[in-house]
Amino acid sequence: MTQVPNTEEIKKGLAGVVVDYTAISKVNPETNSLLYRGYPVQELAARCSFEEVAYLLWHGELPTPEQLAEFEAHERSGRALDPLLKRLIDDLPATCHPMDVCRTAASIQGARHPRAGDSSREANLTKAVELFAAMPAVVAYDQRRRRGQELVEPREDLGYSANFLWMTFGEEAAPEVVRAFEVSMILYAEHSFNASTFTARVVTSTLSDLHSAVTAAIGALKGPLHGGANEAVMETFEEIGIRTDETHEQAKTRAKAWMDEALAAKKKVMGFGHRVYKHGDSRVPTMKAALDDLIAFYGRPEILGLYDGLEQSMDEAKGIKPNLDYPTGPAYHLMGFDIPTFTPLFVASRIVGWTAHVMEQLESNSLIRPLSAYNGPDERHLD
Ligand SMILES: CC(=O)SCCNC(=O)CCNC(=O)[C@H](O)C(C)(C)COP(=O)(O)OP(=O)(O)OC[C@H]1O[C@@H](n2cnc3c(N)ncnc32)[C@H](O)[C@@H]1OP(=O)(O)O
Ligand SMILES: O=C([O-])CC(=O)C(=O)O
């Protein structure tokens, strides 16, 4: 007889299941808040650099000026693109998704690491900082080579975000743009047991290594139900049509009509909804403010019109709120990134959260191995 699973026990997608403790971040949908090591993420975004936030997530405390200087020196010394990696990237087809390039880069960095077999906290911290330092060069160079442009060498006199933009565009970005980019990096850095972080913890729980965990996490982030949504948001804007000569109201009207049609056709619209937040994503107001600054800086009211139109129609029709990928999509577009580079930007930031979770998992490890309820054929035998 086919075993009927006890549906009470099955939690599809692990929805609502509490799997373990974490001291890294607290996502609280009731109060619509997100704390990194106890600090509201909005405060961190307003007052800290991304480097300080990365240090906080890894170490549990914000750095002293001396600790920050030492950390920054370490990070800045690891920014150059490994020549072997550059050759390998050059050999990858330009048709492959930039997320495949990120995934490959993380894997190669692991394969070449002199301390590959060492999973001590000290070795893992070093590996985490190295991945954090190296990924911007990969993302920036990959976008450039697709445009037929040369590699831009990193600048050690610039902070993380300013250097990232420098390596991507080959010119110094305006302070307004650097700030908006920095805010996005801080907001993307960590979000408890999301799909990619959980993937990293599953890999780590087998006592595999940090680079394997990050490589797998990049694969999980790629999907449009997770990190890939920031690209899909901009594809939606493009499908509706970006008309730079339009007013805010004109663009909003067209976006509302598009959304009404999409919802009538029962489409899932990327950039809306969240597994944990059901009344709005705690990070959206901060990122929306950064997007507003960019829109004012670039003088692009039609982008705000599209943004407002989609958001308003979705809210009126289904009460579903935007998630963080909704404002970051148009923000990265305005900064000049190509759409397929958006999720790699998320990777560059979330590396911090993933690696913090790898280290936390190892501090109190238990193999992650849930059960399944069998609903296949009854036992049978070969004749
Ligand atoms: C940084 C991040 O990774 S944030 C997430 C980024 N992902 C996206 O933006 C993808 C679009 N959103 C979604 O697919 C979902 O909202 C998820 C996957 C994020 C969360 O999903 P779940 O918690 O499993 O909710 P689920 O998908 O079951 O949705 C519940 C209901 O809301 C609807 N819904 C949820 N999100 C959306 C959406 N974006 N567009 C239209 N309808 C939606 C579903 O169709 C479903 O309706 P139903 O009950 O009538 O069938
Ligand atoms: O938490 C989640 O499910 C998705 C995620 O990574 C985020 O929102 O940053």
Automatic annotation (TrEMBL):
The active site is at residues 274, 325. One of its GO terms (biological process) is tricarboxylic acid cycle. GO terms for cellular component: cytosol. The keyword Cell membrane does not apply. The lineage of its organism: Bacteria, Bacillati, Actinomycetota, Actinomycetes, Micrococcales. GO terms for molecular function: citrate synthase activity. Keywords: Transferase, Tricarboxylic acid cycle. InterPro entries: 2-MeCitrate/Citrate_synth_II, Citrate_synth-like_lrg_a-sub, Citrate_synth-like_sm_a-sub, Citrate_synthase, Citrate_synthase_AS, Citrate_synthase_bac-typ, Citrate_synthase_sf. This is Citrate synthase.
